[in-house]
Amino acid sequence: xxxxxxxxxxxxxxxxxxxxxxxxxxxxxxxxxxxxxxxxxxxxxxxxxxxxxxxxxxxxxxxxxxxxxxxxxxxxxxxxxxxxxxxxxxxxxxxxxxxxxxxxxxxxxxxxxx
Length: 114
What we know:
Helix content is 43%, strand content 25%. By secondary structure, the chain is an alpha+beta fold.
């Protein structure tokens, strides 16, 4: 299982509208995210338009490929593109991602197996 953390930046003047668009997200987009294999998916606002997100998936490459061909995701991403700062291409395909450096459950499993 892959655990993916990502960062996006929303234009501060558009933050309120961005937040409204996520409460709720289109039901068909929610279904596409789930169908892509992403689960335990959250986005957090850190302040000033800075967002950090997290999801789990068994295969991030396959998840991205599924969303890349999804008509629903294409419509959603086209609608959301105007909100982002310094975003090249679709956010679901090109957000900045970060390596995981610590995962409690993984380290507990490893230490208990010794």
